[in-house]
Amino acid sequence: xxVVSNTSPISNLAIIGRLEFLKRRYGLVRIPVAVADxxxxxxxxxxxxxxxxxxxxxxxxxx
Length: 63
Known about the structure:
By secondary structure, the protein is mainly α.
């Protein structure tokens, strides 16, 4: 299943510690480069760390 998301749902799940929900629910999670760039600038330290661990920037999908 292909799911498209903007930055807000992903960053909010990361902040509350529920980012793994995406992988459990949808399997492979790929995000557009623009969304990855926005997530990389997330100012919440714990959320940013969870994003780095859960959604590595390899194989981003094209915009």
